[in-house]
Amino acid sequence: MKVLIVEDSIFVQKMMSKLIGDYIPNCDIRTATNGEDGFQLYQEFKPDIITTDLLMPGLNGQDMLRMIREQDQDVKIIILSADIQKATREEVEELGISGFLNKPLTAEKASTLLQMIQVAHHA
42 lies in which domain range? Predict the structure, then answer.
């Protein structure tokens, strides 16, 4: 399985990479720090699952998600964001996401994230 983590915090990138890598052996994980890099890596890497923040410098998560959906309706996308506005959540849900978790990533939310990835991978 190939996972792309799009997150502007290097700390969160490393934490999520370790979490996913420990949970899913032989998982190929790539990271990007903003939407531009995330979109470019998506095109090159063709991940099975993308986790992304919404609030990032430059191209934000919603705009990256829109660009990906113009090319690919099937890739599984999980949002992990501190932006908890109802309108934002509804907007990304309309774009077809597999899940939405609010930051910060607690132990309980990490467990939920891993379950979401497992479900999305087998969907």
Answer: 2-122
